[in-house]
Amino acid sequence: MKVPIVLFARYREATGLERLEIDIPEGSTVETAWSVLTAAHPVLARYRPHTLFAVGTEYVAADRPLLAGEELACFPPVSGGAR
Amino acid sequence: MYRVTAEPISNAAVAEFVSVPEAGGIAVFVGVVRDNSGGRRVVALEYEAHAPMAEAKMKEIGEAAHRQWPGVRQVAMVHRVGRLGIGEASVVIAVSAAHRAEAFDACEFAIDTLKQTVPIWKREIFEDGSVWVGLQGASPPPG
Question: What is the CATH number that goes with domain A2-75?
Answer without folding.
Answer: 3.10.20.30
